[in-house]
Amino acid sequence: MPSERPIVPSSLSVKDLLWQVHWSRERCTLCGRCTAVCPVGAIEPAVFRKRIVKTDILAAKQPPNVFEVYYGIRQLTDPAHACVGCASCTLVCPNDAIMPMHGDEADKLKFHINQQGEPRRRGGRRNAPPGILDRIKFTRISMLTDPALDAGRHEFELRTLLGRVLPAEENLALVREQGWIPPVREIYPLIIGGMSFGALSPTMWEGMLMGVAYLNEQMGMPVRMSTGEGGCPPRILRSRFLKYLILQIASGYFGWDEIIHALPHMKEDPCAVEIKYGQGAKPGDGGLLMWHKVNRLIAAIRGVPQGVNLPSPPTHQTKYSIEESVAKMIQSMYMAWGFKVPVYPKISATNTSLAVLNNLARNPYAAGLAIDGEDGGTGAAYTVSMDHMGHPIASNIRDCYLNLVKLGKQNELPLFAGGGVGKNGNLAANAMALIMLGASGVQTGKYIMQAAAGCVGSETDRCNICNVGLCPKGITSQDPRLYRRLDPEKVAQRIVDVFVSFDSEIKKIVAPLGRSTSLPIGMSDALGIDDFNAAQRLGIRYCI
Amino acid sequence: MPKPFAIQGIENGIRVESRVLEEKIQNAVSSGKRSLLVNARGQHGIGGRLWAAGDETVLVRIDGASGQRVGAMGFPNTRIEVNGPASDDTGWLNAGALIVVNGNAANGCGNAMAQGKIQIAGSIGARGMTMTKANPRFAPPQLWVLGSTGDYFAEFMAGGIAVICGFEPQTPGNILGYRPCVGMVRGQVFFRGPIEGFSEADAKLIAIDEKTWAWLTENLKAFLKNINRPDLFKTLAVKGDWQLIEARSAQEKLSKPRRSLAAFQAEVWDAELGRGGMIGDIIEVEKGSIGLTPTGNWRRFVPVWENRKYTPPCQASCPTGIPVQERWRLIRENRLDEAIDLALSYTPFPATVCGYLCPNLCMAGCSRSFSRIRPVDVAILGKASIAATPPPLPPISGGKVAVIGGGAAGLSAAWHLRRAGHRAILFDTEKTLGGKISAVIPESRIPKDVLSAELNRVKKAVEHIQLKAPLTPAAMQKIVADHDYVVIATGAGKPRLLDLTGGKRAVAALDFLKQTKTGAITVGKSVVVIGAGNVGCDVATEAKRLGAQNITLIDIQTPAAFGKEKEHAQAAGAKFLWPCFTKRITAKAVELTNGQILEADNVVVAIGDMPELTFLPPSVETAKGFVKVDASFQTTDPKIFAIGDAVQLGLLTDAIGAGRKAAAAIDAKFAGRQPEVSETSPLNIDRVKLEYFDPRTADFNSVTSCADSCASCGVCRDCGICESVCPTGAISRKETADSNGFEMVVDDEKCIGCGFCTGSCPCGIWTLTPNTPMLK
Question: In sequence order, what are the residues at sequence separation of 6 or more whose Cβ sits closer than 8 angstroms to the Cβ of residue B212?
Fold first, then answer.
């Protein structure tokens, strides 16, 4: 039938697609699982006609045509049904008969994904696999020059401080005068970055927080997780687990009235409040939770009616300058918990980060600054924002740290770095590189989805359909038929595995440096890179 | 015991180098000395490596400062007695020597020791008994300490036995120091006294059984004897004071006791948050997870058997609305007669029109056409329908309807009204019914006997009143008054003519055709037909029949002619010219605006016809010369309907369809119902699977071959393919009491929503729809 169709400009062949579904008629047992599981309807069961001309040159009669029919799997080629490469089909196939393969040619779908003038939107991360963080090496190994440490034997205090750490004399003076001393939290340096309840499925969110609670209560690791913007389940707000959460407030202010109503019933203060001004993956752009995702559950948690669009604008409506944004927001958020909870802003990495930082340095209430680089992940963004907007985290965090050093405040105002940390699986190495460049801690989100829930999204444009709520693993869907694929208990177990192994790995990095058993914030003389310009820019050693 | 051979560590007030002292000791042993007294000054490694004595025992007593690594790499033949404290790494890499220190020993005591014994009469420093070994070829090493140990004791201990007596310890509160046993993989540590923990990940406390206690007491006695404190035996040999740490096996280490996540969820998480965990207060939450291809309510998609939900494409493309596919189905079921008779429910002319005159839009709309497979040939079935016999007419129920005009439209309306039980009276000026079919269509296109047979069939059903004169408004008014409803089907009998010089010389096509039928016209050698539509083609065909040799059809645009009419005209040698704009018509020619002159003995204008509507009452509105009607063909006067060319120029099948629909609307009105105008939407032909059919089918030669090749779009052909293809056996056929007789049903508990039924269904009955949202 397709062969008889007139072509239109967006008529594509399987060859034009980024993902091509290879199917073996030989192996297929027609069990139907692949078509049942495909999230985007990229494949369909089909009838195929097979013609055989039975020629026998010696026979006296004209060779007959024999028609046979067989059943199999056909890949659809229209942009709306293009395979996303998630390989759910492969996952369910009992005979390994089907698998999406990355096309060997430039992706032609790219030119047609904007039907009806709607530019492509997707979830995931920048489609750019390499990154500078993976190239940074730890080159200062303690070889007899100072006592080497043993990751397995020595005790490390790899904790960090979130909050304004006043110089000793100021602090003592305040103690004497019974003045206000900024709250400071001693936390684990790897924070689960803000992924909202709504962007994530309830099973994923619950699994993550349960894992975090386990790490705190069973393993003694003070791991913290940011809520992202989307509120916080009322039961959590009224439980002791609240202290493991950093409550995020962003331009949509979703769920905050529910948080306010819960204030009188809170058993614990939250770890901190994060004011989100920007997201590394889509800097300067907002978000929208589509109405069809706003079901009974999301509506209850965000404090909104069901079935309405929930926009998070690119900017906060009532803030017009750094001074105003920072002073006004920080003050308000401090007041909510009687100045006992640290409040800090989170921004996208940008050329103008230093301006924000300098402002914060002058504001005695600012508890820190989180900066999210261009390689951060997102549940939904325009591809153009994701792939082309934003600033890499490495030089941005470095500039900020060195600026604090100039001000003599590097031990006072903690910086938190995020954006592509561990994007190629090297979480501990990336995290320690950022810490040695000057971050007090790192935030990571996408890695957690990959490691704790089996997210298959990649920087070669695989899957990345978080935005349409069809996540084949149930990580970013609000449909129980998808999110029930994920068992929160299993997610929690993976969270525990990830953090415990991360903890071993960072010790394996810190111990051979031989300097200290504490977190080596800003210890950039231990870093090297095989790129001269990068070395110059970051102020680290050029090693080849 | 012979007098020991003295070796000085200081000569002439100068300390002897470790290398030189070692040389002296080795020389002494080589020369047969078996008892040495070394007056040491901190020299390195005194007393080790004395293999030169072979199996004979060598006693090395050390006075003074014994130095680091005393007894390092000691041999089993060697006994070393340090008269005083020892420095770091006592017995380092000891391979069998007994080393007794009559005092404290500093850090690293017994480090990397593999065999032999070290016995300390005091306490030791940090990292004692670390990295020890246990070689299966030899007895394991032992470390005996009378007092306490420093920090990091027994780190990475990989074998041997340490006994820490805790007598007059340096650290009375914690006799094993800070963090002992980290990384310990093998061996035992006996201790007597308080400790502040040890690495429980690596080691564990075990009970001291009788055999072990016997070993301990026996060896304790020997130890105390060696350090000259036999008096302490009674104090120390109290079983209740001793504890024993043993390294965990590798297997034990793998299974560190930790609360399982499942237990954490139940005992901690849900206990704090309540039943259902984090969101149990908002929605019902079940534990665990579902699979990737679940059944029942967890399916993302469900198949729906949409039998007869959509109109088959052939039926949808037939203006008359004949269920063509249904007729083929009846033939497949060997019910040929029923198939043939069925047509009469839709048209009084199944043979005349479907078999001969209709361009067969059903075939153009056939799914097969879109796949370049020859559509099933309905004309065969049409021709066979000459045999159709109508069922007995129902008694007249009282309604009385006047149908004005006896053409295809009027006959269709009257036919259907009568079949519905109403009295239908045809008013027509012609003697013969049939309108254009009888009057103007060339006989080459419709055999006379076929037409007259069908006209006879319809005449038996309807009354015919031949009007003496064309209708006047007054006559019309009377008809309206005398009947319940009036259907205007007067056609378009008024030719559109050309308003140009010589225009009057031209003959209107319909007049020309009527005259050719009655033989009332002379046709010359050259004929020009202005207007190259199908009527023009009929003119050409008739002109040829009557002797014309040069026939030209001209048009201002691409000729609209198609189908049989065009074929016949082409067979008649007619030339088609376009775009041509006529300037004037002369006696002998047609002159075009571009100066071209076309010779013409006859000029016929076939640019369409207009209805003649002067008889209409004012209550019936018109637009652009045609009667205005709604979807049920009702005019602005509710009593009056209008159909056929009076409403819009069209094909015979359009007129027949309009007659049927108008009749249905009137029937509905008699019954007090609203006329049904909405019909089911046509089936999307993408749902039909033509891969089952041989695309090379050349010709159909019988109604049965056609019926077999009909894809049965939108109507289940009961082939059982879905039942067979369904991977989970979820589909089954169920007999029903309705007219269909069966249905295909899905067992939701087996179905995974794969869509194989949809993908394989030849008729496009199955569809896969998203399951109802669970959480709205």
Answer: B244
**Do the beta carbons of residue B29 and residue B21 sit within 8 Å?**
no
What's the confidence (pLDDT) of residue A2? 43
A180 vs A101, A165, A167, B42, B768, CA distance in Å? 60, 12, 14, 60, 65
| Amino acid making up residue B107 | N
Q: Determine, for residues A488 and B277 on separate chains, whether the beta-carbon distance falls below 8 Å.
A: yes
Say yes or no for a CB contact (<8 Å) between B292 and A91.
yes
Assess whether the region A2-118 and the region A132-542 belong to the same CATH fold.
no
C-beta of residue A435 within 8 angstroms of C-beta of residue A519:
yes
pLDDT value, residue B255: 63
Domain chopping of chain A, boundaries: 2-118, 132-542
Class of domain A2-118: alpha beta
Report which residue type is found at A116.
Q
Say what the pLDDT of residue B254 is.
62
What tokens appear for B653 in the block? 């099948």
What is residue A1's predicted lDDT score, i.e. its pLDDT?
38
Spans of all domains in chain B: 1-103, 122-248, 255-284, 400-493+611-670, 494-610
B759 touches chain A (CB under 8 A): yes
The CA-atom distances, in angstroms, between A473 and each of A463, A483, B425, B576, B763 are: 11, 7, 72, 66, 35
Q: Please report residues of A whose CB lies closer than 8 A to that of B371.
A: 1, 4
Is it true that domain A132-542 has CATH number 3.30.70.1660?
no
Q: What angle do CA A473, A222, A168 make, to 5 degrees?
A: 140
- What is residue B2's DSSP assignment? P
Query: Does residue B1 carry a pLDDT above 80?
Result: no
Residue B554 in contact with residue B575, Cβ under 8 Å?
Answer: no
What pTM does this model have? Answer: 0.85
Say yes or no: do domains B400-493+611-670 and B494-610 share a fold. yes
Compute the average pLDDT of residues B659-670. Answer: 92
Q: What is the reported pLDDT for A276? A: 93
Tell me, what's the pLDDT at B560?
A: 85
Lowest mean pLDDT, pick from A25-34, A80-89, A393-402, B461-470: B461-470
A102 neighbors A19 (Cβ within 8 angstroms)? yes
Please determine, looking at this structure, whether the domain spanning B494-610 carries the CATH number 3.50.50.60: yes
Residue B292: which of A88, A152, A490 has the nearest Cβ?
A88
Q: How far is B325 from chain A (nearest CA, A)?
A: 20
DSSP string, B20-44: HHHHHHHHHHHTT--EEEEEEES-T
Chain B interface, mutation test: which of A3, A23, A47, A266, most B Cβ atoms within 10 Å? A47
**Per-residue pLDDT tens digits for B582-605:** 888 888 888 888 888 888 888 888
User: B residues 469-508 near A, CB within 8 Å?
Assistant: none
Q: What is the DSSP letter of A401?
A: H
Burial class (CB in 10 A: 0-12, 13-18, 19+), A119: exposed
Measured CA to CA in angstroms, residue B487 lies from B439, B491, B517, B616, B647 at distances of 21, 12, 28, 12, 11
Tokens for A30?
């027609």
Residues of chain A found within 8 Å of residue B286, distances taken between Cβ atoms:
484
DSSP structure string for B258-284: ---HHHHIIIIIHHHH-TTGGGTTTS-
What would the pLDDT profile of B266-292 be if each residue is shown by its tens digit? 999 999 999 999 999 999 888 889 999
For B667, half-sphere exposure in the C-beta direction (CA atoms, 13 angstrom radius) is 20
User: What are the b/e assignments for B567-585, b being 16+ CB within 10 Å?
Assistant: ebbeebebebeeebebbeb
Q: Answer yes or no: CATH 3.50.50.60 is held by domain B400-493+611-670.
A: yes
Determine, for residues A88 and B372 on separate chains, whether the beta-carbon distance falls below 8 Å. Answer: no
- Reported ipTM: the value is 0.93
Compute, in degrees rounded to 10, the torsion defined by CA atoms B512, B516, B517, B520. Answer: 100
